[in-house]
Amino acid sequence: MKNKGHCEDLLASLSDYVDGTLDGQLCEALEQHLQSCHNCTVVVNTLRRTVELYQQEEPDAMPEAVHQRLLHRLQLDDFLHEG
Ligand SMILES: [Zn+2]
Fold first, then answer.
1. Which residues, in sequence order, are CB contacts of 16 under 8 Å at separation 6+?
2. Cα separations (Å) of 69 from 2, 50, 51, 76?
3. Cα–ligand 1 centroid distance for 60 (angstroms)
4. What's the 62 CA to ligand 1 centre distance in angstroms?
């Protein structure tokens, strides 16, 4: 069953989730969703890996602008509207 509205809601919080700053309840909802949604799991894994790679090169901090650019580069919108 496709539930893209739900996916988009959760993915909007992904940046915070990967940072570990997401509200506990949302965090739980996201993790529950991930267990049943392969698409979102792929997005989370990709985002995590991208952030980790970036932090290895720039260990001090990730400026918010860069963070946003990373999210854009992952083209979450395109991803969500596939198939
Ligand atoms: Zn999903």
1. 22, 23, 26
2. 27, 11, 11, 12
3. 32
4. 26
Give domain limits for the chain: 4-80
Question: 51: CA distance to ligand 1 center in Å?
Answer: 20
Ligand 1 centroid to Cα of residue 6, in Å, is 7
How far apart are alpha carbons 75 and 43 in whole angstroms? Answer: 10
3-54 tens-digit pLDDT: 556 788 787 888 788 878 889 998 898 899 999 999 889 988 988 888 888 7
In angstroms, what is the span from residue 18 Cα to ligand 1's centroid?
15
